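Quick one: co-fold with 6R9.
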Amino acid sequence: MSNIGSYEDRTKNFDWKIAEKELEFKEGHTINIGWYCSDRICLKGKADRIALFYEGFGGIKKQFTFNDIRLASNTIGKFLQTIGIKSEDRVCLFMDRIPELYLSFLGVLKIGAIVQPLFSAFGDEALYVRLENAQTRAIITQKKHLPKVRKVLDRLPYLEFVIVVDHSKSRVLEPKVISFDLQESKPVEEFETYPTKAESPSVLHYTSGTTGQPKGVKHVHYSLISQYLTAKWVLDLQDNDIYWCTADPGWVTGTSYGIIGPWSLGITQCILDAGFSAQNWYKFIEDYKITMWYSAPTAIRSLMKAGEKIISNFNLSSLRHLASVGEPLNPEAVIWSQKVFGKPFHDTFWQTETGSIMITNFPGMKVKAGSMGKPFPGIKGVVLNPKTFDPITEPEQVGLIAFQPGWPAMMRAYWNNEEKYREKFVKGWYLTGDRATIDNEGYFWFVGRDDDVINTGGHLVSPFEVESALLEHPAVGESAVVAKPDEINMEVVKAFITLKPGFIPGPDLELEIMNFIRRKLSPIAMPQAIEYMEKLPKTRSGKIMRRVLHAREWGEDIGDISTLEND
Ligand code: 6R9
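Sure, here it is.
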C-alpha cells in the first residue's frame, strides 16, 4: 500500500517547500539535477544500490550502481569540458536507449550545459530542424546513427562536435567527429559540479504538439522539485521499488520520470531497449520483479490486443502500482488491467510544457475508469469557457484545461519563440490546448485536443469517447476518430480502426460497429464512415496523429510529420 497519505490531507497543507526540505535545497543555493540524481544518492549511503538494470537487443544485460553512474557522469562531464563545452551550450543526445544515453544526460547537466534529447529514430531532416533551432554545439551519438548526422553536418555551422560513444578507441575519426570510449576512460572520482541555480536551464525538449513546427521547451534545474515530489507521491515510488518507465527519453516522460524522478529518489530502475512485444514485456517484468510500472495507452492497448492467455505464462505478482500517460486512457483499458493484473492503471495527465504530472489518479483515491483524476496537490487546475476564458463552475461542461502558473517544473520558454510562448497564457491561466469536463466530485474527464473535437450539426462530439466505445467492440484493436466534411452537418464522425487478429474487414462488420456505437452513445456520435487500417499513424511517443487522418479527409496539407513513427 502507499505510504504517502490521502489526497485530501496532501492537498490541504500543500507547499512545494515539502520537496525543497526533503532535498535539502534552500533558495539561492546551487541545485543541479545531475548531482542530485547521482552524488547525493551516494552521500545518502546508497552508493552500492543498483541505479540501472539495462537489457538491450540480443539479450545484452548491464547494470550500474549509483556510484557507477556518479563516476560515469563525472567522466563524461569532464570529457565535455576538455573539448570546450561550456555552461548553457546545447548538447544533443541522439542515441538508442543504451546506458550511455542516461549517463550522458547526467554528465551534460553536471557541467551546466543544456541537454537536448532526441529520438534516435528521427530521420536527418527532423534532426536538422531541431539542431538548427537550438544552435546545438555538440551531439552525442552511436556509430549506427552517424550517417544521419553526417548528412546535416555541413548545414549546421554551430555544431562543432559529433561524439560517438560506441567506437572502441577515443580519437578523432574525421573532421568534427570524435569517439569517446567510457570504458577506456579513467573514471573521474572528484568532479566539481557546475553551480547551477534554480533558474539555470537544464533540459530542452522538442515537441511538435498536434500542429505546427516543433518547438523547443526550455526547462530549468528547479523542475527537480516537482519531478521528485510527483514521482514520490503519484508514482508512489518507495525505497525498495524496482521501477520501469517504458518511455524513451526523446519524449519528456522518459526524462522527467525515466531519469530525474526515480534517480533523485534513489530508486532502482530498469530499461528495456529491445522493441515491443507482449512476450518481451511480460518476461521483463517477471525477470526483474518490477513493482512500479509507468507506461502509455498505446502500449496498453497493444497488450490488450495480444490477449489474456499469454499473461498466464508469466509470474507478474511483483507488480504493486501501475500508471499511464500520454493519451486518454480508455475505460476499457482500466477495467482490463484490473482484471488481468489485479490493479488498475492510474491515469496521469501532463505535457512537455508542464514538465511534471498535473492531473492524476492519486494512489489510494477512488479510480473512476476513463477519468484522468484530480489536480496534483498544489496545482490549481480548471476548465475555462472557450469564449470568455473564465473558469466554468458548473460540473459536466466542456472547457479548456488550464492551470495557474507557478509550479516548479513549468516550462520557462519556447526556445527563440517568445510569441508562441505568450499565446499559451490568457487571463493569467496557462492553456494546455486540451478540453475536458469536471464532474461533481472534481474528477477531470478528457474530451480531446482543441483541434480534434468534432462539431457535427452543432453537436460537439468527443473523439475520445467514440474511440473508447469502439474499443469495447470485440473486433476493434485500436481506433482514431476524426471529423469528415459533410454538406449538411458540416462535419460527421469518421472512424479509422485496426482489427484484432481473426477478424475480417467488410461491410457487414462496418455496419455492426456503426450500430454498436449508435446504441452505446448516440446517433450523432455514430461514425458515418469506417475505414480499416493495418496500423494507425502515431508519434514516436505513441500518440495517435489524428491530424494526419484529418488532413487526408479534408484534402489539406499534413504539416510537419517529423515525429511520425514509420517503422
Ligand atoms: C507527458 C506528455 C501532451 C499531450 C496533452 C494531451 C495528451 C497526455 C494524457 C493526455 C489525455 C492523458 N495527454 N496525457 N490526454 N489523458 N492522461 O504526454 O507530454 O508529449 O507534450 O503531450 O498529450 O493532449 O496535451 P506531451
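If it helps, The longest helix spans residues 66-83.
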